[in-house]
Amino acid sequence: MSGIGQREGLIARVRHLRAAAAPSAPTEVTDPAEAVTLRALEQRIAHLEEQLRGLQDSVHRENVRHTGRLAHLAARTEPAAIAVALEKDARERGL
Q1: Residues 66, 60: contact at Cβ < 8 Å?
Q2: Which of 42, 44, 40, 48 is nearest to 14 (CA)?
Q3: What's the predicted TM-score (pTM) here?
């Protein structure tokens, strides 16, 4: 599976899990201490989601970079490319 396909699959699984875990009706918090704790947890989850998005973007960029590098190396090691490089080297060395 490609990096993008894996990312989309992960996002779909997270959305599914969040939808399944979400309460059907909002629960009213009456205790002020619980409200503070709940708000702190919501902020932490938002922060973690932001970090996860950053990590996903970083992994995607690295995957694109590696894919490009591998394609470049594959092109350089093709027999025709090697022949051209050897011929150029021989001309430069006067052989």
Answers
A1: no
A2: 48
A3: 0.52
Q: Alpha helix (H) ranges present in 22-78? A: 32-76
Residue with tokens 């090691």: 77
49, 63, 51: which is closest to 15 by C-alpha?
49
Query: CA 64 to CA 57: how far, in whole Å?
Result: 11
Each residue's pLDDT tens digit, 71-89: 999 999 999 989 999 999 9
38 and 29 in contact (C-beta within 8 Å)? yes
Contact, 17 vs 23, CB < 8 A? no
Phi and psi at residue 25, to the nearest 5°? -130, 140
**Letter string b/e over residues 5-14, b meaning 16 or more CB atoms within 10 A of that residue's CB:** eebeeeeeee
Give the chain's mean pLDDT.
87
Q: How far apart are CA 5 and CA 9, in angstroms?
A: 6
